[in-house]
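Field reference: sequence -> structure
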Amino acid sequence: MSTVIDPLFGCELVTSRLDRDGYAFHGKTRAHIAAWVAVNGVVGVDKDGEPLVLDHLCRRRNCKAVHHLEPVTQSENEKRKSWKYRARRTHCPRGHELRGKDFNQVITPEGGVVCRSCKREARR
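Structure field:
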């Protein structure tokens, strides 16, 4: 699977085999799911037993950067489709503050909100 790193946003964009919705594949599995499972294991369920799905924080469906993925319920994933809902977030999934004096967030062309601190940590 060929990928290219977006230096501005930290996305690992898969450039091979995309489906009609823009998702990349690794074999028969979507590439972002395969990447998550390789690092973190299965996606699993929440505390109430509801299945979790992976949300692309960057909103780029062909991105497989694990630091851009967050397991959430399907209902939360639907809410996050709204820019107004995404823009209200104050912290990234790893706890970094997104706003404040350092303005630690970057907005992708697709309207995703990614954390600069997570991007720096992922490079190491």
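Note: The first strand starts at residue 3 and ends at 5.
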